[in-house]
């Protein structure tokens, strides 16, 4: 016998019945995207490495440590190109926006995508090499109203999927005017204590000192005394941040200011936010995050275009739902169609009629005894059995409630109404 092949490390097979939770969470995301007037966009799962290097920043973890590189077919003329599976969708969406001249469409554009992202990290609980996000991006809107709208939308997503204890953390990390002096203030703060920093932080201090703040191993005293970006904002950024906060308060969206929230990617400006769930520790606490990236379009060679978006991790949302014991809503009644030997044409016809009426139906394709078919139907989660027999000639079937055991003869045309929806 040959050796069995298993799924690659850091990936997961999503199997029924667990996939019901996925369908629920994705349905909530799709419904919210509709209610908030986002339009669907789809982009490739892989892009040129250069797009991520330029967009996300060479010093970001996603580029420096976690890039999932792929090579093309051997011998292809594009062999020289370097590709990577997308670690996040924003850079690709902005690339598509520029490439297709989407700025000519009436804006601001509100775009949404659900799909897999890839990061070549060391796999652990809640951290996978392939995971899914619900992503929204708004291009051409400088805010601040949209900033508040997106924080409200993400908060509503967590509420509508059924999670409790999710906290929105908000910060402003300034822009091209006020970030350089703030970076310098951080360098000045940390440099005298460089021996107390982790290896990662020492390296980051040189290339991206903001990232020292989100080092989980940062000495608490050094963290507490570190300069805060909110105190170093230029007038325009401070006003923007004040207005975002005022809007969140007007909307009654609970949030906390987190001075250490800097987000991992270089393209963020001004508003940054993240959602964490109470009762979990470490990085896996983060369920989703986002922020403003007003400089990204230019970094990718386009005209200046303000942008803001978020990526909510679906894997961790589902883990948190499971931990909180939240079951997905049941999918409605399931009808098994059972019958007697070799009446499969009748069974399939009855199944079709019930499906025409909108029901979920699984016909039994065997010639087992009726009792065995009913047993299998219950085990498979069916709540009703449509029993096909002689009376079908008069347009009638037996309808058995598998929970109560009650059975009656009903006209096929009435069965769906009897079962209800
Ligand atoms: P980030 O852009 O890194 O803040 O990611 C946004 C969200 O995606 C996170 O809050 C997580 O929920 C999710 N996420 C990021 N990386 C992973 C991963 N390796 N495995 C599972 N979920 C992830």
Helices and strands, with pairings:
Elements: H1 19-35, E1 39-40, E2 46-48, H2 49-56, H3 61-64, E3 68-70, E4 83-85, H4 90-99, E5 109-118, E6 130-139, H5 145-161, E7 166-172, H6 179-190, H7 199-207, H8 210-213, H9 220-225, H10 235-251, E8 256-257, E9 269-277, E10 286-292, H11 296-299, E11 307-313, H12 314-323, E12 334-338, H13 344-356, E13 360-363, H14 370-379, E14 384-387, E15 396-401, E16 407-411, H15 412-419
Parallel strand pairs: 1-5, 7-8, 12-13, 12-14
Antiparallel strand pairs: 2-4, 3-4, 5-6, 6-11, 7-9, 9-10, 10-11, 14-15, 15-16
The structure holds adenosine monophosphate (AMP).
Describe the structure.
With 421 residues, the protein is of the alpha+beta class. It is built from 15 helices and 16 strands. It has helices spanning 19-35, 49-56, 61-64, 90-99, 145-161, 179-190, 199-207, 210-213, 220-225, 235-251, 296-299, 314-323, 344-356, 370-379, 412-419; strands at 39-40, 46-48, 68-70, 83-85, 109-118, 130-139, 166-172, 256-257, 269-277, 286-292, 307-313, 334-338, 360-363, 384-387, 396-401, 407-411. The strands form three sheets. The protein has an eight-stranded mixed sheet, sandwiched between helices. Strand 15 (396-401) and strand 16 form a beta hairpin. Helix 1 packs across helix 12 (314-323). The protein starts with 18 loop residues before the first helix and ends with a helix. The structure holds adenosine monophosphate.
Please, how many helices? 15
Q: State the share of residues found in helices, binned by percent.
A: 25-40%
Strand order of the largest sheet: 1-5-6-11-10-9-7-8
Bound molecules: adenosine monophosphate
Radius of gyration: 27 Å
- End-to-end separation in angstroms reads 48 Å
Largest sheet, in brief, is: 8 strands, mixed
| Low-pLDDT ranges | none
Q: Identify the overall geometry.
A: elongated
The whole-number mean of residue pLDDT values reads 93
The fraction of residues assigned to DSSP E strands is 15-25%
Give the class from helix and strand content and strand pairing.
Answer: alpha+beta
Number-wise, the strands total 16
